[in-house]
Design brief:
Blueprint lengths: L7 E5 L12 H13 L4 E4 L11 H15 L5 E4 L5 H10 L7 E5 L8 H14 L4 E5 L1 H4 L5 H10 L3 E6 L4 H10 L5 E4 L5 H6 L4 E4 L6 H12 L3 H18 L6 H9 L16 H11 L3
């Protein structure tokens, strides 16, 4: 089976909420339309940025199904489906309606800190339980564990449906080791908006971006220019939005993104605890930055 390659700009979609805490589906529809018009190559549903840990199982399914519906098959859809209980992840693969989903994004198990062999066996079990292409997600700053290049490459070589990795270690040496030794049909994607241009320069082939929720055209332009080697032009846009990217993460993700999207009239700024909106000071800085765009 030939699997689709996930390259270019993917967007890790937020989940908009109403004031009463319920999912704001009209706003979600507007956001999906906004990012597709902005040129993203694929959508990522139920990632970290979606506040997925605060969604019930029923809400996760509703959000995923809504994104598939709003997308209307315009671009591929990737669904976040991972966890630190392998058996539960396998059960979710059976229970979830993945109709319209083109691939899975599966995060390294968090909190219980497995060894590299434990990580290998975890992803082996997932790969053997589904026909969907799998994008590994390495984000040590959130999970407390690091999927090392040798383990990711071993998985890529052993399982044809493990097709890519979202690498968010922030360690450029580790990124270079991964890119240097990976199989030709395995894609390495950036998971760090503020490092994206540097990572494209060392050989990554795209990004799964938080900033693409709001700075959509800018992020897609940067990645598309980098893909064809036009780094001078890409750099001009990148440095223009870099202060804005820093503000997105100043008080946690997706608080900054939701603040920007509020001022773009795309959604309200409501989050679910334990996350809270950005401070008044950060919001003022965001408003000032948006005036520069």
């Amino acid at each position: 089976m030939a699997y689709q390659q996930f390259k270019g700009t993917g967007v890790a979609l937020i989940t908009p909420f109403q004031q009463d805490g319920k999912v704001d589906f009209p706003a979600l529809g507007s956001l999906v339309s906004h990012v597709i018009k902005g040129g993203v190559d694929f959508l990522v549903a139920l990632g970290t940025t979606a506040e997925t840990p605060t969604l019930s199982a029923a809400e996760k399914q509703e959000v995923l199904s809504a994104i598939v519906k709003y997308n209307e098959r315009k671009v591929p859809v990737v669904c976040g489906l991972g966890g630190n209980n392998t058996a539960e992840v396998l059960q979710n693969l059976k229970d979830f309606d993945l109709k319209g989903v083109d691939a899975l994004l599966s995060v390294t198990p968090y909190y219980n800190k497995p060894s590299q062999e434990g990580l290998y066996q975890h992803f082996k079990a997932i790969a053997e339980a589904t026909n969907k292409p799998i994008i590994l997600y390495n984000v040590p700053g959130r999970t407390g564990g690091n999927l090392l290049p040798a383990t990711a490459i071993r998985l890529a070589k052993d399982f044809k449906n493990i097709v890519a990795i979202k690498e968010a270690s922030g360690n450029l040496v580790q990124c270079m080791e991964l890119i240097q030794d990976k199989p030709d049909n395995f894609t390495v994607l950036s998971g760090d908006d503020n490092l994206a241009l540097a990572q494209m320069a060392i050989g990554m082939e795209g990004i799964i971006s938080v900033a693409a929720n709001c700075f959509t055209k800018e992020m897609t332009d940067i990645i598309n220019l980098a893909i064809v080697g036009k780094f001078d032009k890409a750099r001009r846009t990148f440095y223009k939005i870099l202060p804005g990217i820093d503000l997105l993460f100043a008080e946690g993700n997706p608080a900054g993104v939701k603040c920007v999207l509020k001022h773009m009239n795309l959604c309200q700024q409501h989050l679910r605890l334990p996350l809270v909106p950005v401070s008044e000071g950060t919001e003022k800085k965001i408003i000032e930055f948006l005036k520069t765009l």
